[in-house]
Design brief:
This protein is mostly helical. The chain has 5 helices and 3 strands, in the order H-H-H-E-E-H-E-H. A hairpin with a 5-residue loop joins strand 1 and strand 2. The protein is rod-shaped and about 120 Å long.
Length: 201
Amino acid sequence: MHSPPSTPYRRLITYSRRDRRLHSTSPLPTCETQPSRDSSSCKEVHREEKVVDKGLYTSDTTSLRDAPPVAGIEKQLAEALEELDAAKEKIGRYEAAVEEDLSCDVCTLPAWQPCILPCGHSMCADCLYEDARHRRLSGRAIYSMKCGYCRSRITRAPIVSFDWQRRVDAMALEKGIPIPKRNPFKWPPAGTPKNHRSRIV
């Protein structure tokens, strides 16, 4: 019997079977599955794996050894907190000093209209007006008013320090303190009898 003649379909089927054998999904040969493989190559691979494992272990142990102890970290944290508290206290003292410097020497309230007396000391306009009112009611002349610190007579009209006033306003805005309405400073105050003001320059 003659074999059937070769056809393109036959050749295609034969090629497909051979191709499947070449592209088999069987596992790749390893040192264990292919004993005939060069043993030196397998040993080299195992040696490299051991070196990598040893390097990772050494790196981990070195990091743990070089890390600062927990007690040392707690001590550093405590020292940092102490420094922070000291800085806050220093800032608080400075703010208190600034606030005191911007306050009236008599009523110790913010000097909304700080006035410089002839002697160089200061009073707010409200305190000056109040003192003048008491003197007027008691029949005493304004020119006999004295500084509350050095007891020098106020022989000249006090001068409003607008630079000081701006600093008082800035402090009030920072602390959220409402700034009261100011009237123009006048000296002697309105309503002062003429005979009580004749010696005021």
